[in-house]
Specification:
Layout (H helix, E strand, L loop, with lengths): L5 H18 L1 H4 L4 H16 L18 H10 L2 H13 L8 H25 L2 H6 L7 H26 L4 H4 L3 H24 L3 H7 L1 H35 L6 H16 L3 H13 L9 H4 L7 H7 L2 H9 L8 H7 L20 H16 L10 H11 L6 H14 L16 H10 L1
Helix pairs in contact: 1-6, 1-8, 3-4, 3-5, 4-5, 4-6, 4-10, 5-6, 6-8, 8-10, 10-11, 13-14, 13-19, 13-21, 14-18, 17-18, 18-19, 19-20
InterPro entries: Cyclic_di-GMP/3'3'-cGAMP_PDE, HD/PDEase_dom, HD_domain, HD_GYP_dom, HDIG_dom
Protein name: HD-GYP domain-containing protein
GO molecular function, one term: hydrolase activity
């Protein structure tokens, strides 16, 4: 966002003005400055942790916004003082996109307004007294309402910046923002409530700070998981892009095979983790084509027996390429065996029936289905029902009947809406040749 649209700039300035108005009562009220200072320093420390030379390389981006501290302030302090807690940390937070100064002002205004709203609701429902009362469960009611207010204000402001700065349509700008924020903020709200209760207890602020240690560690682990998952996705995306560049006629094929494989997995009732690995298998099943000469992959005419043998090496090439990628797990066997056939006439090892790994049997069906329903330089797309009829005809000899049945049921329930479509080509050939060519590749 190097060039800020005027409407977005006006929106940010209005938010900043609203935040300043919320902060104004601090100057004339009996503000508990020691508590404000301690919470502000603590929140600033959370924001700056990612830039620390000692641990900065290990703290993933996105860990700075540590809502328990802000919500604890909303539960402990007057609204204006609670809003002030967010400002110093937001103004020094790391940002990798320009204009950095305007983004920091926006973030400070957004957090201040959301925290002020939470504190107002909490106080209006008697939450301040409930935090100190011996009947602790009653404190959950105003705290829960404060969390809802925080989420509502945060989502409302976020939707506005999407509509003004990113030009997202108004109907879509706020869609899903509140539900996505509610879960994490509710968890952080419970931690903030624990901090507030301990703060007001005989144990004092030091005991309240101890709540943050396990909370911060859990957030760090969660962020590490997401960073690792993103790295996996980038690895797979790079490999698929390399295959698409080398074999342009199959562009999008890998993603569609992954999508069809996932549909089969869900129909079979696979656990989410296995289904995700199976999707990886579908996406990467043709990665071995990187080891096949490009002239063979792009050849329009029929393949010679020698050329066919070279292309049939691609499952082994692919297995070698991904053998050291640990997170692929069972996907590696699918990459190696996705051209095996139930009757033993497939390659590379001529496995039969249950000897073929389950993932490979799924990917084989998904691969053949997409090959038949996609238009390429040497084939024309067939209707889905024709492709399913062909898969059913070959079930038992070439394909696992269980996997074919799962795909038929899944398509009957959800239809086929591939996220990526193949490049259209002018050349078209009779259907029998399509089947032979698709099977060989």
């Amino acid at each position: 966002m190097r060039t800020v649209p005027p409407v977005a700039l006006g929106y940010v300035l209005c938010a900043a003005g609203g935040a300043l108005a919320c902060l104004a009562p601090v100057a004339g009220a009996a503000t508990p400055w020691p508590a404000v200072g301690l919470l502000a320093v603590l929140y600033t420390g959370c924001e700056r942790a990612g830039q620390c030379r000692v641990i900065g390389r290990r703290v993933p981006k996105g860990m700075g916004t540590f809502f328990p501290v802000l919500l604890a302030g909303a539960f402990l302090l007057p609204p204006a003082a609670a809003a002030l807690v967010a400002v110093p940390g937001a103004l020094v937070a790391r940002t990798d996109r320009r204009p950095a100064g305007l983004r920091r002002v926006w973030r400070a205004a957004q957090l201040a307004l959301a925290t002020w709203a939470a504190a107002r609701v909490h106080g209006a429902l008697g939450g301040t007294a409930a935090v100190s009362a011996p009947h602790f469960p009653y404190a959950l009611v105003p705290a829960g309402a404060a969390v809802l207010a925080f989420c509502a204000a945060f989502a409302l402001l976020d939707g506005g910046i999407l509509a003004t700065a990113e030009r997202v349509p108004l109907r879509a700008a706020w869609r899903g923002l509140f539900p996505r924020a509610l879960g994490p903020v509710a968890v952080h709200g419970l931690a903030g409530l624990m901090m507030a209760v301990l703060w007001r207890s005989p144990y004092g602020p030091f005991a309240a700070l101890l709540v943050l240690l396990p909370m911060y560690i859990s957030c760090w682990v969660f962020a590490q998981y997401h960073r690792e998952r993103a790295a996996h996705q980038e690895t797979i995306r790079a490999l698929v892009q390399a295959v698409d560049i080398k074999d342009g006629y199959t562009r999008g094929h890998s993603e569609r095979v992954g999508q069809a494989s996932m549909m089969i997995a869900r129909e079979l009732g696979m656990a989410d983790e296995r289904a995700e690995v199976l999707r990886f298998a579908g996406i990467l099943h043709d990665v071995g084509k990187l080891g096949v000469p490009t002239r063979l992959l792009r050849k329009d005419g029929p393949l010679t027996p020698e050329e066919r043998r070279i292309i049939e090496l691609h499952p082994e090439y692919g297995h070698e390429m991904v053998r050291g990628i640990g997170f692929l797990g069972e996907a590696r066997a699918a990459i190696l065996h996705h051209h095996e056939r139930m009757d033993g006439s497939g390659y590379p090892y001529g496995l039969t029936g249950a000897q073929i790994p389950e993932f490979a049997r799924v990917v084989a069906v998904a691969d053949a289905f997409d090959a038949m329903t996609s238009t390429r330089s040497y084939s024309r797309a067939r209707p889905v029902d024709v492709a399913l009829a062909e898969l059913s005809r070959c079930a038992g000899a070439q394909f696992d009947p269980q996997m074919v049945g799962a795909l038929v049921r899944a398509l009957g329930r959800h239809g086929w809406n591939p996220a990526v479509t193949a490049d259209e080509a002018a050349a078209q050939v009779p259907w029998p040749r399509v089947a032979r060519r698709a099977a060989s590749r």
